[in-house]
Amino acid sequence: MADVLAAEETVGNPGINIAIFGVFVLITLYITFRASRTNRSATDYYAAGRTISATQNGLAISGDYLSAASFLGIAGAIAVFGYDGFLYSIGFLVAWLVALLLVAELMRNTARFTMADVLAFRMRQRPVRTAAAISTLVVSLFYLLAQMSGAGGLVTLLLGVKGEAAQALVVILVGALMIFYVLVGGMRGTTYVQVIKATLLLAGALVITVWVLAKYGFNPSSVLGGAADTAGAKVLDPGNQYGISNASKLDFVSLALALVLGTAGLPHVLMRFYTVPTAKDARRSVQWAIWLIGIFYLMSLVIGYGAGALVGPERILGAPGAVNAAAPLLAFELGGTVLLGIIAGVAFATILAVVAGLTITASASFAHDVYANVIKKGEVPPNGEIKVARITAIVIGAIAIGLGILALQAGLNIAFLVALAFAIAASANLPTILYSLFWKRFTTQGALWSIYGGLISSVVLIIFSPVVSGAAVNPATGKSTSMIQDVDFHWFPLNNPGLVSIPLAFVLGWLGTVLTKEKADGDKWAELEVRSLTGIGAEKAVQH
Amino acid sequence: MTAPNDRRTLTSEEYRQAQDSAEFTELRKRFRSFVVPTTVAFLVWYFLYVLLSTYAPSFMETKVLGNINLGVLLGLGQFVTTFLITQLYVRHASRSMDPIAEDMRERLEQHEFAAGTTSEEARRG
Description:
The structure holds two protein chains of two kinds. Chain A has helices at residues 2-8, 14-36, 42-47, 54-65, 68-81, 83-110, 115-119, 125-158, 164-215, 220-231, 246-262, 267-272, 279-310, 313-318, 326-375, 382-407, 414-428, 430-438, 444-463, 498-514, 522-534, and strands at residues 473-474, 479-480. By secondary structure, chain A is mostly helical. Chain A has a domain at 52-420: Sodium/glucose cotransporter, CATH 1.20.1730.10. By secondary structure, chain B is mainly alpha-helical. Chain B has one domain. Chain B contains five helices and two strands; from the N terminus they run αααββαα. Chain B has helices at residues 12-20, 22-55, 57-60, 70-109, 119-124, and strands at 63-65, 68-69. In chain B, strands 1-2 form a two-stranded antiparallel ribbon. Classes of the chains: A mainly alpha, B mainly alpha. Chain A: Keywords: Cell membrane, Membrane, Symport, Transmembrane, Transmembrane helix, Transport. Chain A: It is found in: Cell membrane. Chain A: It comes from Petropleomorpha daqingensis. Chain A: InterPro entries: Na/Glc_symporter_sf, Na/solute_symporter, Sodium:Solute_Symporter.
């Protein structure tokens, strides 16, 4: 099998991979077309008429959340770095408690379509909506970059596509499909794509997990032992990736903070709460999501250590797609071309579903917050808003395709890139969401300072971190892990900005509030609090 | 059953009255008395785990069962507590929060929280 890798740099049979992927595309296109029949109003387009059931929404949330980063990135991180990769899955899961306990139901009760609906509820509309829309667009684009980068790596590995032009063509194809789902199917179509994808992903992961366990007599300790035998005993211990220096240890804590506080600030996750009929359904859909995501991460522990044991970190790192290739390589090792083809199809479905979810969120935020409420001050015919949302989806899709083509060059772990999106979301969005929902005195100035402060500080710290420039050159590859080679303008020592930017955003929100003469609107606070806890006045499901 | 055009939107006054009511105070208390301590607890437990993994690696390397060390076990413990808190919260919310919320919602729809509303007016809604 090693010779397959060496000879062609392609694993498996591209024909089978493409065929399986084609079947998935055909099925989802059919469903998207059917879903489009009920798309009439903005509520249909953005929120699927609020008629998605809690179970479906739970699956769709998992579909949205278990991105290529979770499927490929975490398994890869565990395979290569062992224990330190495990932290990603724990942080990504525990974060859901913040969403469940503090955010999901209250947001469902008070907002219509976007995060800004809640943030601007008792504030001056235009500046707060603009700020929330900007942060939504930045977080979504960062997340899209991670997904498209995953698509690039995967394409190289699975389809045997060589040459930059051919790879670019595949990314364009993926992007075009995603735009199509969003334009035609709206939120309903996107939701169905995510439900199908989540089901396939969980089934695929289950097959690999059981297979790996079966190889080791269903004894998890033996799987770990196998990984230790192939990859060295150190994979079982903490500190492989982050234990090297004091800075890297702090980086680990920073990453942990961003992971646990990021989820409840992700705009595309928040938007899923508006697709269900009531807050109780929002609660139940998060309950579903937590169980599905948790079980998936438990399986990815087995998949990751299984890949470490059966494939080995050297072959994983040597493959195109590097760390992200662990799960596909394991599938090939276990079940040959057919299982690899299935996993390839699942991985493509994953990327398609997640980018579609991100695109609809970003386009909704632009059309609903910036166009309808800021530019037109609410004076738009309902169809005008959807039209703008569709145009925005095309623009964002085009940007994502462009970024995806650029990202083909980068060999960064996608779980890591996604962690950066989490850090930005945790800094720019979460403090304002929590203050808006729980702090009576919170004011417009506080909201603006917190959103812009969190957004700017996290992005600036990333730009001047080793992620972008100046990371040490890896002797094995001869390349630095930074995005830009041979230049060094970094001064911030951590890869993840969360440790600085998240507390800063909380402090700025507080400072902005206490330093303004403006008084919080008591009437609006009463309305927000009563609505958020009782659900009175919450948007109802659309009857067709 | 009120026809849609008979329905008034709730006034600020009504929201204020509802917010000041005893049942809303109770609803908020039940919500916060579960959510606040639980959030503090799981965040402390999560960061304890992260800090132990970072700054006490030799403690986490302690082998417990075969190749399974303390770090992996505590990590799995994070999964267990997350599942547990989820179930406890869903139960708490549906048993002790939903009934008050539903009751208040109905009465708000009937405009029973409007100041000076006679029972006659409230019934006509």
